[in-house]
Amino acid sequence: MAIIELTCIGILYYLGYSAYCGDHIIITVLCALLCSAFLLSFLRRIWRGRYLNMSMGKIDRLSGEAFEEYLYVQFKRLGYRVRFTEASHDYGADLILKKRGKRIVVQAKRYDRNIGIAAVQEAAASVAYYEADQAMVVTNQYFTKSAWNLARQNDVILWTREDMKRRFRIRGV
């Protein structure tokens, strides 16, 4: 895929330069825009690709925002269509997943301690707001007994660090 993208960028650059030399400004601008779009897409994929082979130790050191981006990349790899919610007003969800017509809201919690009921409450509340079918809380730690009980009553999926290791195929400590 990378070779195809780089080839397209090269062709568009050549066409744009040729059009520029021939006084075809509209073609030059279109080629420049397409070239920029391909390049941006290529660089974004490289940037996000760094999350694919992280150890749990590195995941534990991510910021909250970087953890959300990590989950974005991993869920994409699992075949979900993924989008971020607004950072400032996320209404209890950080990501929205779609697969086979099912919509799941995800609350991401990268913490140094176990996760309590507040995260489960936020995720459960976000189902109605985002018109989702189900809620999920994913953490690099574990959940309290109260969180498990509340999740069971509200049909919220909980993923601990062990679930992450297994489903994202994380190796190492």
Q: What helical percentage do the residues reach?
A: 40-55%
- pLDDT average, as an integer? 85
Number of helices: 7
Uncertain runs are: none
CATH class assignment of the largest domain: Alpha Beta
CATH T-level fold name of the largest domain: Trna Endonuclease, Chain: A, domain 1
Series of secondary-structure elements, N-terminal to C-terminal: HHHHEEEHEHEH
Read across the widest sheet, the strand sequence of neighbours is 1-2-3-4-5
CATH architecture of the largest domain: 3-Layer(aba) Sandwich
What is the rounded Rg?
A: 21 Å
Work out the count of structural domains.
2
Instruction: Look at the helices and sheets and give the structural class.
Output: alpha/beta
Oligomeric state: single chain
**Termini, distance in Å?**
31 Å
Shape: elongated
- Estimate what percentage of residues fall within beta strands: 15-25%
Q: Based on DSSP secondary structure assignment, what is the total number of beta strands?
A: 5
Main sheet attributes: strand count, strand direction, barrel closure: 5 strands, mixed
Labels describing this entry:
54% helix, Trna Endonuclease, Chain: A, domain 1, elongated, 7 helices, alpha/beta, 5 strands, 173 residues
Task: Please summarize what this structure is.
This protein is of the alpha/beta class.
Describe this structure in words.
This protein is of the alpha/beta class and 173 residues long. The protein has 2 domains: 2-49; 56-167, Trna Endonuclease, Chain: A, domain 1 (3-Layer(aba) Sandwich). The chain contains 7 helices and 5 strands. A 5-stranded mixed β-sheet has the order 1-2-3-4-5. Strand 3, helix 5 (117-129) and strand 4 form a beta-alpha-beta unit.
